[in-house]
Amino acid sequence: MLVDGNGIPLSLIVTGANRHDVSQLALLLDSAIFTHPGKGTAYLYAGKGYDGEPAKKAIAERGYAPRVCRKKRRAGRPWKNRRWVVEVTHSWFNRFRKLLVRYKKLADSYEALLHLAAAIICWRKVVSIYG
Fold this sequence. Notes:
With 131 residues, the chain is mostly helical.
């Protein structure tokens, strides 16, 4: 799942549980529903699992500057750990009971429910801002 700085979902894909996230990174970035306005550098914050060269190369090829954060803050890394943004988005998705326990067997049905939940989450964020 790709989220913005406020935790609003921008892109999501459904894969099997036995697939590593790094192998799906290029597909996830290509399915994003936005374009960077071009002002300044676009940073992509990622977890420790995206620390390898293939992931950094995929991120850089799509015009982002990779920022791989670890759980512990190291000297020489000026940026903060932003993992909480993704975790809060997962928490919002877990509030939908039909998604928390996966009743749908077909991947297409489950993905449709995920997109519906993402739209509801986006709507709730927009209403709270522009209200």
